[in-house]
Fold DRP2 isoform 5.
Amino acid sequence: MQPMVMQGCPYTLPRCHDWQAADQFHHSSSLRSTCPHPQVRAAVTSPAPPQDGAGVPCLSLKLLNGSVGASGPLEPPAMNLCWNEIKKKSHNLRARLEAFSDHSGKLQLPLQEIIDWLSQKDEELSAQLPLQGDVALVQQEKETHAAFMEEVKSRGPYIYSVLESAQAFLSQHPFEELEEPHSESKDTSPKQRIQNLSRFVWKQATVASELWEKLTARCVDQHRHIERTLEQLLEIQGAMEELSTTLSQAEGVRATWEPIGDLFIDSLPEHIQAIKLFKEEFSPMKDGVKLVNDLAHQLAISDVHLSMENSQALEQINVRWKQLQASVSERLKQLQDAHRDFGPGSQHFLSCT
């Protein structure tokens, strides 16, 4: 950042005691009316424009050179002394503003770099979502995010250092809150420029601080999201494997069922009782099936959708469970109907005795 050049001094510089003669000469009405030199009268009555950014009216060069005639000459050494004092004060103001601009410039660049870096990392963090509904993929994403968090964490000390420097700078150069900051122009005073620079540093530091807090909070939230997702996927995967095994056992028992027509009439009560016990034995599967479906629903709410493989496995669990329930209910109904139609209390049984 190039140092800002002071265009004019807004401050009223103290007048030197050596200017008293010049003031008396400048405001003397008798001199204006009696001075034999018209050019001197014009120089006295019309102050020259500010010189060298001092911001206060200065006498004309003719007066400073002492060419005012014999009626009212000014002492060149005294005038030169006062002029040098003004130039010195003006130079000091320039040096102060340039030093201030240089200091603020050393903060603006790293603050902007921090803002750009944090914005980029925020985009990279967003690109990690959504998570895939697969244990292996989420485990891989967990490792990637851990490395990402380490990178952000390692950047922390530098960010804190720059923000602390900005805070120290602003404590030394406070600024007034304005609804609409002054725009820079050639007439902007050094004080306003310092205020504008302080305000700009404050805005950068505020944005950087907010981005840092947002990124670190999102990192923690995403870490928890990954951990929770991995835990739910492991749970649903384990539950589906257990359900698949239990369903296979139940389907194995179902495969041993004899056709109703091949059963002895007197064995029907025994078969009815056996199918009721079978239904009770495998009833806990209902809770297991409900659990895996609830877990899948919770994952979907978190924008985590099961992989194709897991989705197909879950669908098969639901289909097999419904088929088992239907076959058990149908088997029990057939046995009870046969017992009612052909059992000891049936008309068919009585007619055959």
Remarks:
- The CA atoms of residues 43 and 60 lie 6 Å apart.
